[in-house]
């Protein structure tokens, strides 16, 4: 590297790099989000272990998993996968996500044997999914989480024939709902409720 290399910061960047408080505040927000997701997992786990929800045994026994990172499309995130079983081809996951500057979301992700097992039940309850604001993933990449039109479309905007055609083309199925960050204080209840609603879609 040349000794002449210079770093040029804008006035806003210089103000931020000189201020410790904002990065400490960010860390506090991320830690509080992890704690919130842990509480949500405990709430849902109580319902699952009490047999109030019918799930395959291997999923009932799975432990909650919380991960956080700094760079989903350039921004920090926290994810709770519970209930979940993430295999190479066979995937069952209800994923709660906090994405910095964007939203919270709750996603049902099925692939492989779990898509085959539950797809028909979900289609029977598709109007219920529509009522609580679900969107259907139309992307070929199952690991995108944003809600831009090339990734998700509202079920209300799709015909049943459209949904069937999308599912026939994909080896996975994703239904998702997003919530504004301004609802942060209500999110523990909202996300727990929507995780249980996602599980309701799986029932006969």
Inertia-based shape? globular
- Listing every helix as H and every strand as E from the N terminus to the C terminus, the arrangement reads HHHEEEEHHEEHEH
Tally the structural domains: 1
Structural class: alpha+beta
Mean of all residue-level pLDDT scores: 94
* CATH fold category name: BirA Bifunctional Protein, domain 2
Summarize the structure.
Helix content is 41%, strand content 25%. With 204 residues, the protein is of the alpha+beta class. It has a single domain (11-200), classed as BirA Bifunctional Protein, domain 2 (2-Layer Sandwich), CATH 3.30.930.
Folded structure, characterized:
- This protein has 204 residues and is of the alpha+beta class.
- It has a single domain (11-200), classed as BirA Bifunctional Protein, domain 2.
- The protein has helices spanning 11-17, 20-49, 57-60, 113-124, 126-131, 160-169, 187-200, and strands at 65-72, 75-86, 91-99, 103-111, 135-137, 152-154, 172-179.
- The protein has a seven-stranded antiparallel sheet with strand order 1-2-3-4-7-5-6.
- A hairpin with a 3-residue loop joins β3 and β4 (103-111).
- α2 runs parallel beside α7 (187-200).
- The longest helix has 30 residues, at 20-49.
């Amino acid at each position: 590297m040349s000794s002449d290399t210079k770093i040029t910061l804008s006035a806003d960047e210089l103000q931020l790099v000189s201020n410790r408080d904002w990065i400490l505040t960010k860390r506090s927000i991320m830690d509080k989000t992890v704690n919130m997701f842990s509480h949500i997992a405990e709430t849902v786990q109580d319902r699952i272990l009490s047999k109030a929800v019918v799930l395959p045994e291997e999923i009932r026994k799975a432990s909650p998993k919380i991960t956080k990172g700094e760079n989903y499309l350039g921004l920090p995130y926290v994810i709770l996968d519970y209930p979940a079983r993430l295999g190479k081809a066979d995937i069952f996951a209800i994923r709660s996500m906090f994405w910095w500057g964007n939203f919270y979301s709750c996603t049902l992700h099925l692939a492989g044997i779990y898509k085959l097992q539950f797809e028909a039940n979900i289609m029977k309850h598709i109007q219920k999914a529509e009522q609580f604001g679900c969107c259907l993933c139309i992307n070929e990449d199952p690991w995108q989480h944003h809600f831009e039109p090339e990734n998700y479309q509202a079920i209300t905007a799709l015909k049943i024939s459209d949904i069937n055609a999308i599912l026939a083309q994909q080896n996975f199925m994703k239904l998702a709902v997003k919530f504004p960050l301004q609802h942060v204080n209500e999110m523990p209840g909202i996300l727990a409720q929507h995780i249980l609603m996602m599980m309701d879609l799986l029932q006969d």
